[in-house]
Amino acid sequence: EIHIKEPIEKEVNPRLLPGELLLCEANTVYKYIQEDGSNRGTYGKLICTNFKISFLDEDSASDDNEPQFKNKIIGENDITLQCVDQIYGVYDEKKKLLTGQLRKYPEKLIIYCKDLRVFHFCLRYTKEEEVKRIVSGIVHHSQTPKLLKRLFLFSYASAAPNNTDGRNQTVMFDTLEDWRDELERTKGNVKYKAVVTNEGYRVSEKLPLYFVVPICVSEESILKFQGRGIPIWCWSCHNGAALLKMSAFPKEQDDNTSQMQKAFLDGICRTISNPPYELLKTEDLSSSLPSLQDIQTAYTRFKQLFLIDNSTDFWATDVKWFSLLESTNWLEIIRRFLKKAIEVAECLERQHSNVLLIEESATDLCCVISSLVQVMMDSHSRTKSGFQSLIQKEWVTGGHSFLDRCNHLHKNDKEEAPVFLLLLNCVWQLVQQYPPAFEFTETYLTVLSDSLYVPIFSTFFFNSQHQKDTNTTGESLKTQSGPFKFLTVWDWSVQFEPKARALLSNPLYAEKPKPDKSQRKTTRFKHQRQLSLPLTQTKSSPKRGFFREETDHLIKNLLGKRIGKFIINSSDEPHNSFREFYDSWHSKPVDYHGLLLPSIDGPEIKVWAQRYLRWIPEAQLPGGGTTATAAKILDLMEEVQSLQVKMDEEHSQAISRDVQAVPMLRNSARLSSLFPFALLQRQSIKPALPTSTWKDLEDEDDLVKRDDEFVDLSGDMS
């Protein structure tokens, strides 16, 4: 049944990074091409190193078949150990999850990845000893708990020369000067100060070395409860109102301690509610937003919709697409976080109130909301360097537990939750609704989400600045030149060549105009809210959202109860105030450098198609989608630029960055709608017919019975 391609004769050697060691390998492994549902594929060698699992075939040896958008670290058939989600073995056509010690070895191996790729390997033609070695090696190195020092991050950092310019215009917020500059940029330095109280981590190991607090807060107050109960500054609005966050006190305390903490909190709040400070509004995110467990459960269900084994599975589930999508609750969670960020923005912008976000650790939900508010209100955070600096400030030095939340060490599944991925999903909603407002593209966000699982960068592989510092300067890790430096993910030259990096920048970005009042009034772009693929749209009206008819009333009631909880105060007035603010903003022309509010009603919240559908050929539109639109606009831009060059030679250097981005989208008719990740050569041979017409596209008899419907549809399409 298998279309056998002869095993390769020549030896294919793996490309190993500095510090990367080959641990086990197996020859004559057959990799299925899952796209077309047949058993076609190619023979090659499957290897496992201390960094990745990799399949090597003839194509790996040649550079002829390289994709245009190539990652220099991770190849098309490479899976980093941290990117492995689950591994299944197939025994007599039955799938079984593989964990720990194995008594019996499977005839097929299926690897599901966190970036939603699915790999199928057949081991029937592999020597038994090699099967045992490779399967147990892959399961052990990717699924079992490991020590932090065993991460490839350390092997790479000690073996690779670090000659790159890591900063790349990104503010790292690891010095006192960085915080003072940010205070000055946002004009918050009148009421807030950067403090050095935590030098040597004497206050808390969770807090960064330097942070910002209201000027009236004393050093003794910060030290009193290890930094808990202290309002920490995030950002200041143009009108002087500030966004603050606070780590809450533990709930289970004895009465005496509890009274002391309450008195301490009351004192702090009274102090920062008096002039020169604005009125203070507090927002307990733990009670008003979904919990980490809710987020993890929703995402686990959601990602299953995209881990497709073959075409048959795709078409079978496609008929129930909207009901399956709704049942995951993932889009509803995104909507709730965006709504909360709008509520906070309204307090800052219109009510001129300080907002204090409260959470137990202030390192999860606080990070999402504070980041979203800044992206919506501060155009600097919509530039590439500004967005990267924002992530450094709120997430990396802010103490988000990347190691635990991404479960990089496989130590505790209960701590896992895709909080950072949730932020990227929320930001994507804004990027796709207002493309000209962002200097970066959705491809940038997709690549950033993939970088969560690449352990050569330290950015997403520590729980805190303290953990990173102690592991950087540990004596056992000293090289001959002293403590080594880790790479930062913000140096994109490590992963991509200049031609590929051009796709991370938005050529249609509406750069801030010069202060010329006559030109400022002209709006160059309209809303582009329809730029989504068919599978991300809904026919329901905005009021109905994604709700199914039969459960419409019940779910509305349930949601009504939940929505009621997360308004800043539970009275009707704030809700009306919010709606008035939201509707008023949406009734005016968009200022791409001012406040941006996402549309959050029903079908406006969409699936991030590029990230979630990119490996599914059936979901691609050859020569269609946003790629085709962008290609046409870029062609026009190139023509305008060439005319501009002829008119004024002095401007040629200034526009060279935009010109570089144009050649990547040549021949748009041959590109997939999910470019640059899915090229036309990956296209499925199944016909891309309307998905709701047939419940089973594999059943020919059913197609005959529905011949009339086919004729009608052809007429519609023509």
Automatic annotation (TrEMBL):
Keywords in alphabetical order: Cytoplasm, Sarcoplasmic reticulum
Gene3D superfamilies (alphabetical): Pleckstrin-homology domain (PH domain)/Phosphotyrosine-binding domain (PTB)
GO biological process: phosphatidylinositol dephosphorylation
Location(s) in or outside the cell: Cytoplasm, Myofibril, Sarcomere; Sarcoplasmic reticulum
Keyword Magnesium found: no
A Gene Ontology cellular-component term: sarcoplasmic reticulum
Source superkingdom: Eukaryota
InterPro entries assigned: MTMR12-like_C (IPR022587), MTMR12_PTP (IPR030576), Myotubularin (IPR030564), Myotubularin-like_Pase_dom (IPR010569), PH-like_dom_sf (IPR011993), Prot-tyrosine_phosphatase-like (IPR029021)
Major location (coarse): cytoplasm
Domain Myotubularin phosphatase: start-end pairs: 173-612
Keyword Repeat: no
Entry similarity comment: Belongs to the protein-tyrosine phosphatase family. Non-receptor class myotubularin subfamily.
Name the UniProt record assigns to this protein: Myotubularin-related protein 12
Gene transcribed to yield this protein: Mtmr12
